[in-house]
Specification:
Helix content: 25-40%
Shape: flat
Structural class: alpha+beta
Strand content: 15-25%
Number of domains: 3
Length: 479
Amino acid sequence: MALIFHSKLSVDLSQILNDADDFNVIIRVGENKNTKEFHAHSVILRARSPYFKRAFSTEWIIKKDDVIMFNKPNITPIVFEMILKYIYTGELDLTKYQGKNILELLIASDELLLEELFNNVQEYLFENQKTWFQQNFVLVLHTVFKIANCKKLQDYCFEFICEDPEPFVTSEVFPSLDEDILFDLFKRDDFRIEEIIAWDCLIKWGIEQTPGLGSENNDRTKWNNEEYESLKETLKQFIPIIRFVEISSKDYYDKVRPYKAIIPNKIYEEIEEFYFKSTLPKTTTLPPRIGKSYIESKIIRLNSISIITNWIDKKDSNDIRDKNDLIYKFELIYRGSKDGINNNSCNNKCNLQEPVLILIKCKNLKKIFGGYSSVGFYHHMRNEYQNKYITSDDNFVFSFEGKNDIQNMKLGRVISNVNVVYNNYFGDCGFDFGGGDLNMQNDNLYIKNSNYQHTNNNGIYIIEEIEAFRVNCQKGKRK
């Protein structure tokens, strides 16, 4: 029988680290006023770290009185103390440390080739430090993209940006973004941003990154040929990955054409031919930036749509979607501010026997209401469905506490699939989930709980904006 005594071993090694006087290594870490010396044992460091095994094997090491003197100014004392704790005991309680220290530990563990520690620290940051992660996003972004092995955090950073990119690309920190990071971001198909906004932000970034331009020289009407050439050189790898065909002719004329000098001649000729003759470019033909499930909504943000697609797939709100899951396309078919907030407009636009998603924003309320009908709304049909209920097991109604809410949403699935959608031929309502559970009558929204699970939103509200989307889907594909 094998006897295992790891806990006692860990305690004894911890005492060696803290109290022993037989050390043969002094490691000085930190710089300026934040420095500290640590006493350690070369045999333990060599056994636990391939980095130290190589470092202590070279003839270039410095010794003083048979003690190895080693400097690591790029690692702070608090982080190196964490590293020694791990090396000597195999234990480390990350909950005692701030996010900044844990990020620095990630960098140090990668440099010192402590693979086990590195993998666990990356996992901890991903799982337990997301709030700090998002508050210090640019710092994290630049840090993890310097580490080749940090793929999981790199993917999370990109997914976080792509979910709702506009606040990031229009932020004050965007012009300082590293070129390699920006390139990897712009070439992604799931970078969910209007192409003209991507172009505007790229120009702003390029001006800031180009020597001789920047905030003191950002008026292009005053630039000479050399300054245009400098900007062209800065942006040369980005121009071919701009989806010019997604930019309207007006925006092209007003915002792209003035920068003709920075666009390679062949690409520019193809763009011109596209706008004049509708001939697709050969050099820069890329798919639109719609990513996986995309929605062009003024009511909810993109990060809410992943929750709704999970509900459509009958998953929990926060389930991580697999690459083979269904990919949804939400086609806008009705917007109240454009088409009119009334029964007739809604009836005419939503007369479909296809899945339809409804979103409603009401006056003086932050709360967002909505409903999904897998069978659509059979308005204006003189058949057996006239003024009858339509059945479905897949319908649901829901609410979000606000535009940015992804935590406190409420879902109400059908209780009985008999009275799920009311087919109102005479147009006395815009749409009707469950005979009044979620019901539009001109510019009023009526809510009660009857045929759908209770969502605690009973009342009458004035509609400020309403949107309807045809929901199409296709099978996901692995990249």
